[in-house]
């Protein structure tokens, strides 16, 4: 039985290719770090059974789960999805950019690029359609997100504080607490986001 933790890409062959790549890279990094399933489970706060399902490509990890696994292994999500940059210039072709979340009405989150290692910076492109919302339980301590709305209206909730950002507005948010992004209004929402995480 296939467990769906999150819809990670468009349906079909692309989704399977991304799932297989994620599974392979998680196995690779766990092996390189010499971590048993039990130890990674303990560090990430994820059940061993879920890790087995992910590594066997029978479960699709959510963005939040990818963040926890990456932090536990001392790498970045960009390392796992293979869009991390090495020193110098690293070009990423459009077809290499993965969709890591898909909303019920066609919205998406794409990890455009990121740096390697635990002190990481990531660049994301988000699109949400009316009625869509993405929720996160919170990232590791001292994670900061910079957001810029390019179209529509973003309803940003951080803990119990709610902020409405129209097109052209930007925000800086500490996201080591529960937070969410929602499309407010009747038009599609588009925003770019940079995530900075400090390893402790």
TrEMBL record:
Keyword terms of this UniProt record: DNA-binding, Transcription, Transcription regulation
SUPFAM superfamilies linked: lambda repressor-like DNA-binding domains (SSF47413), RmlC-like cupins (SSF51182)
Superkingdom, natural source: Bacteria
Hydrolase is among the record's keywords: no
Transmembrane regions: none
InterPro entries, alphabetized: Cro/C1-type_HTH, Cupin_2, Lambda_DNA-bd_dom_sf, RmlC-like_jellyroll, RmlC_Cupin_sf, TransReg_Diox_bact_type
Pfam families for this protein: Cupin_2 (PF07883), HTH_3 (PF01381)
CDD domains: cupin_XRE_C (cd02209), HTH_XRE (cd00093)
Entry's Gene Ontology cellular component terms: cytosol
Keyword DNA-binding: yes
Record-annotated HTH cro/C1-type domain positions: 26-80
GO molecular function, one term: DNA-binding transcription factor activity
Protein name: XRE family transcriptional regulator
Species this chain originates from: Pantoea latae
């Amino acid at each position: 039985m296939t467990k769906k933790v999150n819809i990670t890409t468009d349906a079909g062959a692309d989704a399977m290719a991304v799932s297989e790549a994620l599974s392979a890279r998680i196995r690779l990094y766990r092996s390189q770090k010499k971590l048993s399933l039990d130890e990674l489970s303990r560090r990430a706060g994820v059940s061993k059974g879920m890790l087995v399902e992910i590594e066997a490509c029978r479960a699709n990890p959510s963005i939040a789960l990818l963040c926890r696994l990456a932090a536990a292994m001392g790498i970045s999500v960009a390392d796992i999805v293979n869009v991390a940059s090495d020193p110098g210039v690293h070009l990423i072709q459009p077809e290499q950019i993965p969709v890591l979340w898909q909303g019920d009405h066609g919205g998406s989150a794409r990890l455009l690029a990121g740096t390697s290692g635990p002190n990481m910076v990531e660049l994301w492109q988000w699109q949400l359609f009316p009625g869509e919302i993405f929720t996160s339980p919170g990232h590791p301590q001292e994670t900061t997100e910079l957001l810029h709305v390019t179209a529509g209206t973003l309803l940003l909730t951080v803990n119990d504080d709610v902020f409405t950002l129209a097109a052209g507005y930007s925000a800086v948010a500490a996201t080591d607490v529960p937070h969410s992004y929602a499309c407010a209004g009747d038009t599609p929402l588009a925003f770019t986001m940079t995530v900075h995480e400090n390893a402790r």
